[in-house]
Structure formats: structure tokens, C-alpha cells
Amino acid sequence: MNKIKKTAQFLINEFGEIPSVAVILGSGFNKVTESFTDVKSLHYDEIDGFPISTVPGHKGELVVGKLNGVKVMAFCGRFHYYEGYSMQEIAFPIRVIAAAGVETLILTNASGGINESFEAGDLAVITDHIKFFDESPLRGENYDEIGPRFPDMTYAYDLSLSAIAKNEAMKLEIPLKRGVYAFMSGPSFETPAEIRALRVMGADMVGMSTVPECITAVHAGLKVLGISCVCNMAAGILDKPLSHEEVIAAGNAASDNAVKLLSAIVEKIA
Ligand code: HPA
After folding, report:
1. Cβ(110) – ligand 1 distance below 6 Å
2. What atom of ligand 1 comes closest to residue 208's alpha carbon?
3. What is the pLDDT of residues 204-227, one digit of tens each?
4. Which one of the listed residues 8, 53, 58, 115 is annotated catalytic?
5. Choices 3.40.50.1580, 2.60.40.10, 3.40.630.30, 1.20.1250.20: CATH for 2-269
6. Catalytic residue among 232, 255, 257, 263
7. Mean predicted confidence (pLDDT) in 127-145
8. What does pTM read for this prediction?
9. Separation CA 226–CA 248 (nearest Å)
10. Where are the domains positioned within the chain?
């Protein structure tokens, strides 16, 4: 707890007033910070307790700047379980920004599409998630000061934020799907049999991030919006293998719309 408070105070000292909105940028959303003005950034290794991101295509910086005139904090590079971090390490930065004053967290990611009405390149609002993986970022001692032992997840993805995303996408004429995101720990992509099983369970997309962060954020009282870039159809749906390069390429192709949509959303919620 002390470490969380200490690091939160460090961010306040470095950045000054902390924005009320933070966004974690997944593949396809990385370019958002190119539209930032008045930028101040810190490398993760300058922030005590922050893990260091190791995935190609992820930078590893915490940035504060103005997007569309609105002050926003952005994580350029996120911490994935498959990189070897514990769930608690993944939780730490989220707890820190909540302690520093962030109120809304926008979680973005790249996913594989399970719902066959989705296509590679689609953006989708995350309405709910599935995590049948037995580790939780909240496992272990509960910090009552942060949140309850058994946090409610009924409205984990805030309904009014999702409605804002939908409206802004409509105004911009950006097609926006919606669906349930299933967390898989990776780093191997899923097998076709796993994807069939996830479909039966009600998943529309699958990915290797976001859910640990969402759980931590909800516990800490943050409002969460989830937006996914469907970068490929999940394993076995199309008759071809998956690759990380394909994910990155589709993310880049969807990037302009992702930036436009995020800018419009932050203007509405900040
Ligand atoms: N599976 C898991 N994670 C992913 C995928 C996928 O198909 N695409 C992008 N991230």
C-alpha cells in the first residue's frame, strides 16, 4: 500500500495535475499519442515499481498530454501476463493511477474475432468479459482502502461510457461492433478447438490482456471503457495460420479510425 501511495505521489510530482482519464494503448491504438500536444512522458523504468514492457511494437512510456484539447494520461505499452509478470505486478500501475487521481480508464487492445459477423480491422466495444483462468490480480491480501474483498463485476464495463463510444462512432461513421472479450493467457494463440469452446461460452473476441487490468480498475473504483481492435479472425475460423505480424499490420490499418474515435470519446468524458 505504501509503495502504491509513494509511486502515485511521484507521478503527481512529475506530471503535476493528474488527468481524470487514462488510456492503455494496445496494438492499433499506439499512434494516438502522435496526436497529443503539451506532452510530458516518463519511461517505465523511471517509475518505481512499474514493470517494463517487452513486446515488440510496445514502447514502455507513461505519457501525459492533450488529445483534442483534453488532458489524458496514456500507457504506451502494457504489461502482459505472458511476459512473465505476476497478476499483482500487472495490477500495480492501475492501482497507482487510481491513487493519483485517475477516475476513468479506457482499455484498448488487439483481439482475435470469434463472432463470425466480425471482420479483421473492426473496432468493437467490450460489453463484458470471460476469464476462466484461475489467477486473479486481486488474489492475496485485500487492501480495504482500495476496494472491497469481493468486488461486483455486474457493470464492469461502464454502460454510459459504452453509450458515449457508440454515439461518437455513429457521428464519425465508424462502424463499431460490440461483444464479450475472453481472456486467454497466451503467448501461444488459441487452438481452433479452444476458439470453438469460447464461442459456445459466449465470447465474441479473444485476447491476452485487458481483463486483469479491468478487474483491478473496478476494484479500485475506476470506471472502465473497453475498446478492441479485431486484428485477425481467431484460430480455425479462416483456413490459415495466425501471426503477430498480421495482428500488428491490421492494427496499423485500423489506427486512423481508432485515433479519431478515442479523441472524440475523451472529449465527451473528460
Ligand atoms: N488471440 C489472442 N490474442 C490476440 C489475437 C488472437 O487471435 N489477436 C490479437 N490478439
Report:
1. yes
2. 3
3. 999 999 999 999 999 999 999 999
4. 58
5. 3.40.50.1580
6. 232
7. 92
8. 0.95
9. 19
10. 2-269
